[in-house]
Design goal:
Nucleotidyltransferase, domain 5; alpha+beta; 4 strands
């Protein structure tokens, strides 16, 4: 499970932290859920974010995988709610559309665009980390938190293409 934390200073967005919650050493699904909750609360206590943006559950072919993913997402949401933090959910397509302009973009395309947007040099080892980061950046874009060149707040952007049209100087 990936996570990403961004900071906003004026109209600049920067990477604070990104990584994964490594659950591979645990066999018991309930222990994995406990670790997700603990790590989510730990990240909140360490970085003090204002909001949590998370990828909403999606429909897949494997019902057991969907159930496990939904539980993991629910536990992360519960961690945020335990710290009185607002939670926002975005579909995988909405996140991809917001970051790349293409709702069907690959994980690699999303990661490359995030690298360009946030100007980080080294790509995280696991693309799950950029998935978490993608939810944070999508939330930022969707809530009209991007200032235009004139310094005024803009409305939300439908994707990267719309953002570039309004902010040509921000192109990497």
């Amino acid at each position: 499970m990936g996570y990403g934390i961004i900071a906003l200073k004026g109209n600049a967005m920067s990477l604070v932290s990104a990584g994964i919650i490594d659950l591979s050493k645990f066999d018991d699904h309930h222990i994995k859920l406990k670790k997700i909750f603990e790590r989510t609360v730990g990240l909140i206590d360490e970085y003090h974010p204002d909001e949590l943006a998370i990828e909403a559950p999606f429909f897949g072919k494997n019902v057991q995988s969907m159930l496990k993913l939904g539980r993991a997402q629910g536990v992360a949401i519960a961690g945020a709610l335990s710290r009185n933090m607002p939670v926002f959910e975005y579909s995988p397509k909405k996140i991809k559309q917001s970051i790349t302009g293409n709702g069907n973009a690959s994980k690699e395309q999303v990661a490359a665009m995030l690298q360009s947007l946030l100007q980080f040099e080294e790509m995280p080892k696991f693309l799950d980390a950029t998935d978490g980061l993608g939810a944070a950046v999508c939330h930022y874009f969707q809530n009209g938190n991007v200032a235009t060149k004139s310094g005024q707040k803009s409305k939300s952007f439908s994707g990267w293409k719309a953002f570039l049209q309004e902010n040509p100087d921000r192109k990497g």
